[in-house]
Amino acid sequence: MDIEERIEEPEKRVFMRIGETATGAAVSRRIAELAAARPELAGWDWIQDVRESRGAVDNDDIAAVAEAFAVAPPGPCWTIFVSHDPNLALWCKVMDGMFQGRLHRAAPTPEAALALLDSLRATPAPSFS
């Protein structure tokens, strides 16, 4: 499987690199496995580096992740996608509506994703009540 994850305990963050052979279904299954084994991860921030990914992702894949993350405490928490795809920001807005308490953003590099996450964490959080 062309998926690597690193759980960063002190930061309450999961970093995932998704390689070119990983399918959307495989990625959603792996995320669901992680969330089932450790439900607290559903409420943590995630950075997903998809720059090398060539696998198609469909609505069922995204819905499976949203269902796995439904156990999360009220947000906010974020998923930051590392990608050069200029259209991913639009998909992030769609995903915002599919997840309760999780917001999605895109950044061009892992370093930019970390900076964006730090910035989001430093600003007042939106209410999800």
What does this 3D model show about the protein?
The protein has four helices and five strands. With 129 residues, the chain is of the alpha/beta class. A five-stranded mixed β-sheet has the order 1-2-3-4-5. Helix 1 runs parallel beside helix 2. It is globular, with a radius of gyration of 13 Å. The N and C termini lie far apart (38 Å).
Our count of helices gives: 4
Q: Which percent range fits the helix content? A: 25-40%
The total strand number stands at: 5
Helices and strands, in order, run as EEHEHEHEH
**Which assembly state applies to the chains in this document?**
single chain
Query: How can the largest sheet be summarized?
Result: 5 strands, mixed
Mean pLDDT comes to: 90
- Which structural class matches the secondary elements? alpha/beta
Radius of gyration: 13 Å
**Shape category:** globular
Query: Span between N and C termini?
Result: 38 Å
Strand order of the largest sheet: 1-2-3-4-5
Q: What are the segments in which pLDDT stays under 50 over at least 5 consecutive residues?
A: none
Strand content: 15-25%
Topology diagram in text:
Blueprint: E1 3-8, E2 13-18, H1 24-37, E3 45-49, H2 59-68, E4 77-82, H3 88-98, E5 102-107, H4 110-122
Parallel strand pairs: 2-3, 3-4, 4-5
Antiparallel strand pairs: 1-2
Helix pairs in contact: 1-2
